[in-house]
């Protein structure tokens, strides 16, 4: 019935309630405008994958798996590895997700995550060549949405980078040398903002996402560079708002990156 | 029933229930013995043995008061989502206003929330609801949340004790629909407290002495 992530018809009272809360500077779950929900990352969740991460962003739950296999490079980039991203919106995760070919939302989601990682050069693709022009490593990033409670962009982006950072290239199994860790050199973090009335909140939850007029995802890396941006929905942002959103995304991204890096490095506990 | 959280008896479908009493909801009789039809908790009330399912969809019952959301308009009726397997039509004859043909949108529009009563349910699970009774109306403002319908009796409490306590502590107006939809109106702080309390009730619905713990939570204030 609906093609949006949200649950179709939104009760008018919910809209007014969230707006009223925003006026008082608070949000439906008591967070401040710049607070993200608690993030929990479990890396190495799938033992048979080359790398994996289970991410819980509040109640949103995403499982990311990395598969690395040898393959043929693209003719125009013979000296580079290949990366592909795919998102599966599991029907069990939301009443509005249906089985079948990927929807517009799933494709957009995969592309936003893909662009963040690709444009930040998070993976050093040149180190993924086995034989130039003949054989390179192909990195598959597969994301499964296990529970949808808003803001899949950030959950998927966080999961993807956490899974990549802990991934190992299975060279031994394919008889081309020794296993080595996937060369991850940057840590891009996407932060999504939703515009509610005249307010802009970070990490929108399901309720906020369903009434948002516009959405902006900003992916930044640890050097404070903007790697990717994606605007969604029909509403608009003013020039000033975009500038503010970028600054906020840098601040929030820094905090989120610390959590991710802490989880990757402190794998044992 | 003292301080420790005591669990109620949990039964699985087909499990014999060794309690004397008349068969109530969620229970079937075979060879004179009672068996559970659901995964749920056994509850004896006024001589009846019931099994309250731990989870599940709302199954409409004639006479239930439910809170619904208008999801579509038609010339002679509104389509209402009451959290049941099917949407429920609300016919223009079942509202207290005189509605001209095709003029339904002037009275209730998409996204409005109403407090209605289930007037009829047939064998196929189709539902008819009505607004023609004292107290039934469109709910203006406030906020709605949804809980599992099986937990509704716990939110209301024995003869309304729980819900009354929530109202007294927070000065909010609260309606609990039998379909698990709860409407709360009042100051934002109050609403947030009520939601927290309801989530707590939902989490601990299967334990004894819940009312006391909720009372403690409300008196302690935030967190």
Would you write up a description of this structure?
- The complex is a heterodimer of chains A (269) and B (223).
- With 269 residues, chain A is of the alpha+beta class.
- Helices cover 28% and strands 29% of the residues of chain A.
- Chain A is built from 5 helices and 12 strands.
- In chain A, the strands form 3 sheets. In chain A, strands 1, 2, 3, 4, 5 and 6 form a 6-stranded mixed sheet that branches. A 4-stranded antiparallel sheet of chain A has the order 10-9-11-12, sandwiched between helices. A two-stranded antiparallel sheet of chain A has the order 7-8.
- In chain A, helix 2 (104-119) packs across helix 3 (152-165) and helix 3 (152-165) runs parallel beside helix 5 (239-265).
- Mean pLDDT of chain A is 89; it is low at 1-6.
- By secondary structure, chain B is of the alpha+beta class.
- Chain B contains 4 helices and 16 strands.
- Chain B has helices at residues 152-156, 161-170, 188-203, 210-220; strands at residues 10-11, 16-17, 22-23, 27-30, 33-36, 40-45, 48-53, 65-73, 77-81, 88-91, 113-121, 127-130, 137-139, 143-146, 173-176, 181-185.
- In chain B, the strands form 4 sheets. In chain B, strands 8, 9, 10, 11, 12 and 13 form a 6-stranded antiparallel sheet that branches.
- Mean pLDDT of chain B is 86; it is low at 1-5.
Biggest interface pair, residues each? A-B, 15 and 19 residues
Question: What is the number of helices of chain A?
Answer: 5
Sheet of most strands of chain B: 6 strands, antiparallel
**CATH architecture verdict of chain A:** 2-Layer Sandwich
Low-confidence stretches of chain A: 1-6
Total number of distinct structural domains of chain A: 1
């Amino acid at each position: 019935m609906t093609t949006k992530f949200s649950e179709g018809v939104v009760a008018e009272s919910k809209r007014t309630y969230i707006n009223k809360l925003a006026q008082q500077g608070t949000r439906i779950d008591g967070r401040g405008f710049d607070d993200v929900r608690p993030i929990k990352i479990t890396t190495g969740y799938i033992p048979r994958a080359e790398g994996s991460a289970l991410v819980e962003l509040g109640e949103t739950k995403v499982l990311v798996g990395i598969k690395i296999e040898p393959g043929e490079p693209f003719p125009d980039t013979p000296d580079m590895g290949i990366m592909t991203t795919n998102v599966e919106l599991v029907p069990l995760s939301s009443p509005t997700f249906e089985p079948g070919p990927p929807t517009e939302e799933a494709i957009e989601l995969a592309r936003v995550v893909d662009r963040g990682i690709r444009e930040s050069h998070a993976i050093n693709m040149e180190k993924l060549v086995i034989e130039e022009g003949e054989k390179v490593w192909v990195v598959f990033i597969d994301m499964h949405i296990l529970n949808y409670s808003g803001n899949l962009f950030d959950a998927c982006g966080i999961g993807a980078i956490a899974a990549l950072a802990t991934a190992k290239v299975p060279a031994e199994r394919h008889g081309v040398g020794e296993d080595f860790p996937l060369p991850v050199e940057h840590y891009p973090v996407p932060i999504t903002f939703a515009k509610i009335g005249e307010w802009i909140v970070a990490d929108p939850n399901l309720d906020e996402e369903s009434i948002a007029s516009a959405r902006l995802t900003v992916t930044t890396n640890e050097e404070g560079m903007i790697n990717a941006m994606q605007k969604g929905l029909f509403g608009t942002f003013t020039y000033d708002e975009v500038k503010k959103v970028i600054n906020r995304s840098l601040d929030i991204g820094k905090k989120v990156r610390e959590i991710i890096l802490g989880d990757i490095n402190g794998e044992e506990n | 029933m003292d301080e420790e959280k005591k669990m109620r008896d949990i039964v699985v479908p087909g499990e014999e229930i060794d309690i004397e009493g008349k068969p109530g909801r969620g229970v079937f009789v075979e060879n004179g013995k009672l068996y559970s039809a659901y995964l749920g908790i056994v509850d004896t009330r006024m001589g009846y043995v019931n099994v309250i399912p731990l989870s599940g969809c709302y199954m409409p019952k004639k006479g239930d008061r439910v809170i619904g959301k208008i999801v579509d308009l038609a010339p002679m009726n509104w389509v209402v989502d009451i959290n049941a397997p099917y949407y429920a039509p609300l016919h223009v004859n079942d509202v207290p206003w005189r509605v001209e043909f095709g003029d339904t949108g002037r009275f209730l529009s998409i996204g409005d929330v109403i407090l209605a009563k289930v007037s009829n349910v047939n064998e196929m699970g189709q539902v008819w609801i009505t607004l023609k009774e004292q107290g039934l109306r469109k709910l203006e403002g406030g906020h709605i949340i949804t809980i599992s319908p099986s937990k509704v009796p716990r939110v209301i409490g024995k003869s309304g004790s729980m819900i009354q306590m929530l109202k007294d502590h927070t000065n909010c107006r609260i309606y609990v629909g039998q379909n698990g939809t709860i409407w709360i109106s009042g100051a934002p702080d109050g609403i947030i407290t009520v939601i927290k309390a309801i989530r707590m009730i939902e989490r601990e619905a299967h334990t004894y002495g819940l009312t006391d713990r909720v009372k403690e939570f409300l008196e302690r204030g935030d967190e």
